[in-house]
Amino acid sequence: MKRLIKPFLFTSFIFSQYPSDTLFVSTKASAIEKILIYPITKWQRISYGSPGVNCQFYPSCSQYSAIAIHDKGPLIGLFATSDRIIRCNQSAYQSHVKIDGEYYKDGRIIDMLNHGIRKDAKSPIFAGIISIIPGLGRIYSNRITDGFFGFLLTSVAYQTAKRSIDNKSILSPFFIASALILHGGEIYGAYRTAKYYHPPKKLTE
């Protein structure tokens, strides 16, 4: 098996031309991480250079996901992926303006995996705890739209999982896992929002 894998990875590296390819062939990535990153490499071949699916963030959501999985491990990486997808909505630019965020040279929102902690950060622990109710932790940090999307997507995921269980679908484990990852991402995302992304307090005159 190893004899087959090594030539495959070598060939992938030679022909790599998308950001996640480098992470996929990294010797530091575990087998599970490679399995999770592999679909991202395929998606980037579709999304990169396609105006209709260009991401508003830098790095893109797909690359952010690959970095998170590679650097943080599969579980936290999936939580971070869920968090980024929820934040990639129509309010992203407005929210970025409110926190005086930086922009890439092509105008995209710079949103790296690792940030400096805001001096006026709210309580990340409290935000995470109240996110047992999806979206509430983000709302606590004044990211209302993100909170709405977090609640909506997590609720839909749980409803889909319940329906699959009721129908005794063979895909039930997948839908259950997806719902748990989304909810975990909501808790993780609320923690990060309180720590890094909430708007600063307005000064009173």
Structural commentary:
The chain has helices spanning 2-14, 19-24, 31-47, 61-72, 74-87, 92-98, 124-130, 136-140, 144-166, 172-197, and strands spanning 57-58, 109-110. By secondary structure, it is mostly helical. The protein has 2 domains: 18-114, no CATH class; 117-205, no CATH class. Helix 3 packs antiparallel against helix 4 (61-72), helix 4 runs antiparallel to helix 5 (74-87) and helix 7 (124-130) runs antiparallel to helix 10. Mean pLDDT is 87; it is low at 8-15.
Short recap of the structure:
It is built from 10 helices and 2 strands. The chain has 205 residues and is mainly α. The model is unreliable at 8-15 (pLDDT under 50).
Number of domains: 2
What distance separates the N and C termini?
69 Å
Topology pattern, helix = H, strand = E: HHHEHHHEHHHH
- How large is the count of helical segments? 10
Helix content: 55-70%
- By secondary-structure content and strand pairing, the structural class works out as mainly alpha
List unreliable stretches of 5+ residues: 8-15
> What does the main sheet amount to?
2 strands, parallel
* Strand fraction: under 5%
Average pLDDT level: 87
- Would you count the extended β strands for me? 2
Strand order of the largest sheet: 1-2
Evaluate the radius of gyration: 18 Å
- Overall form: globular
